[in-house]
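User: Hey, quick favor. My workstation is busy. Could you predict this chain's structure for me?
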Amino acid sequence: MVAVERIVGSYNAWAGNGASTAPEWLKDLRGSAIARFQSLGFPNMKQEAWRFTSVAPIAEGSFELAKPPARRLTLDDIRAFLLLEAGYRLVFVDGFFQPSLSTPFFDDVQSLAHVTTHRPELVRGHLGKYAATEDRPFSALNTAFVNEGAFVHVPAKATIAEPIQLLFLASGDLQVVTHPRNLIVLEREARASIVETYASLKQGPYWTNSVTEVVAGEGARLDYHRVQRESTKAYHVATTQTHQDRDSVVNVHTVAFGAALARHDIGAVMAGPGGTLILNGLYLLTGAQHADHHTTIDHAAPYCASHEYFNGVLDEKSRGVFTGRIIVRPGAQKTDSKQTNNNLLLSTVAHADSQPQLEIYAHDVKCTHGSTVGPLDPRALFYLESRGIGAREAGRLLTYGFAAEILGRMDVAPLRAQLDAIVRGRLAEP
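Assistant: No problem, here it is.
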C-alpha cells in the first residue's frame, strides 16, 4: 500500500500543477482511472493473470515522473533507431514530444497532447474506450497520467504509403517512469502502416508503462509493428488493444528484445463480421530477462478469422511466459481461429510457461491451438553437422531460422532488415 499511496500522491501533485489546464472530460477520465488504480493496487503472483510474473521490482522501486530531457537531441543521436530519414515520424524522449526530431502531418499524425488541445473531437470519442482499466492496474495508471503520446488518424479511403514511425526513447535517467499513451484511428477503408519502437540511449533502470489503442473502421487495413528494445535493466509494461469493424484487416507484429522485466497485454475485439486479424510475436531473451505476453482475441461477430503465431527464443537463465486466450462469443458462427506458441530453449536453465486457451460459445466454428517447448532438434543439428557445418554454427543457423519465421512476415523492409541485424548480432555473441 505504501507504493500505491506514493504514486497517488505523485498523481495529485501532477494533476494540480502541470495537468490542471486539461478539459473537464479528460480530468474526469484521469480521476476515475487513478481511483481504480488505488482500489486495485499492484498485482501479485496470487492472481491468476500474474502467477508467473512478479512486479515487486516495480512496486518496490522509487520511480519518479520523468522530466523533460536536459540535453536537446539531434538527428545523429537517434539515427540508429530510425527506419527512414524521410517520411512521417513522431519522436518522444522520456515521454516528451520532440518537434525538432519529428515530421508531423497537420492534426492527423501529431502528438496526442497537441490534438487533445486543438482538435479534441478527434480524440474524445476514442480515448479510453477500448483499453480496459477495470481489472488492469497498469492500464488504469497509464490512463490516470494520460497526457502525451502519439496520435495517428487516417481519414476514410485515404492511404498513407510510407510507414509511420512512433519512436519512444529513454535518455537513461535512473529511476524515472513514463506513461506514453497512443491512439491510432483508421476510418472506413483507410490504409496505413505503423512502427512503434521503444528503446534506450543508455543502459539503466527505468520504467515504461505504455498503452496503445487501435481502431480499424469498416474495410480498413492496418499493419501495426511494435518493437521493444529497451535497456536490459529497464522495466516495461504495456497494453495494446485493437478494435475492428466489419471487413477490416489488422496485422499485428510484436517483437521483444529488451528489458529486465517485460509484460505485454495484447487484446483484440473483432466487433464486426468478416474481419481478419494476424498476430505475430517474437521474444528473444538472454541473461535473467523475463518477458510475459498475455493475448486475448475476442470474436464478438461472425465470419471472422484470427491467426496467431508466437515464437520465443530463451537462453541462459531467461524466462518466457505466454498465455493466449481465444474467446468465441455466442452468435460468432463461422469463426476461424488458430493459435500457436513455440519456445526454443538454448540453455538447460532457461524456462518457458505456455498456456493456450479456448473459450467457445458457438457451435459452427473452426478453432485450434498448440504449444511446444524444447531444445534444438538434434536430428536437424546432426544433418547440418554431417554437411560440414560446425556444431555452434549449426545451432545458430537453426535458431536464426526459428526467429526469421516471424520476421519474414513483416512487409516493412527497413524494419525487417533492422530487426534481422539485431537477431544476428544476438546469436553471434559468445
